[in-house]
């Protein structure tokens, strides 16, 4: 909507992405404290309903011909705040639903369903934008959050109550407790740094990619949506294979391999020229190789983190890693915008790939790289 309806510049795209990232960076640690204090499922439902209302406001205003980029900034800011609570609560809720011995299998299945949604979502979204305009696509997106809230509400697995606190403790003290646990464990620390590198790369590439594909190469939104959908198919296959690969090669080597594939995939993008067949195949290759590798890494990273973090601190540890990731994504967003405007789209994409590779090197040099299970 920002690019096609409001003619946003690279700088405005960077501000929009920053508005999506800043809340998590500023309040993520506080969210972790409250998620460790409260039951997770009601928080997830409330966050879904809040995001539905926020997104629904965009088409309402657009239909009155008063759409402005400032509204997108505000919605992105507030929706991001709710997303922080939902995502950290979800990651902390999963071990209570399935138990720690089934985390890899559970996360693989969850990622598989997300990949199916990516295939349908991106494929449908591109054509919705092209045929019915971006506000209509956003209106449908708002409805999907209501559907999510309904399904989360149907979960019947009992959630253990939060660990009782023997004496009152301040939010600041509990935040420090979670960060100290994250820093003290070499494996958790390496996971946090690699996630930050991964998300920084995503921030760089995410800021540049749509502008590069639509303006530099000249692809239409519908075709670009289908390219994204291929990435969903790749992620689905990777999710199905993740458990088998991990059992054969070990969790550490599989994480390294996933990041290496994601790096190779990212390097396909700057090789494209024009909106021809070769360029399309290069973008498709990035989706097949890069998205598959990233999915394998994320499943193992999330499962390992959930398995080794103390249960009473899981919300704060998840929040700490998320804050680091959001800060890195914010840095990558700014770097991507600056590089795109000064050096061009292709150098920015190459730099983003190199940052991804740095995350793999962190795992190689840590205890995680040698971890089998």
CATH homologous superfamily placement: MFS general substrate transporter like domains
Q: Uncertain runs with pLDDT below 50, 5 residues or more?
A: none
Strand content of the residues, in percent? under 5%
Order of helices and strands: HHHHHHHHHHHH
Number of E strands: 0
CATH topology: Growth Hormone, Chain: A
Main sheet attributes: strand count, strand direction, barrel closure: none
CATH class: Mainly Alpha
**What would you call the structural class?**
mainly alpha
Structurally, how many domains make up the residues? 1
Molecular structure report:
The longest helix has 32 residues. The chain has 12 helices and no strands. The chain has one domain: Growth Hormone, Chain: A, CATH 1.20.1250. With 373 residues, the protein is mainly α. It is globular.
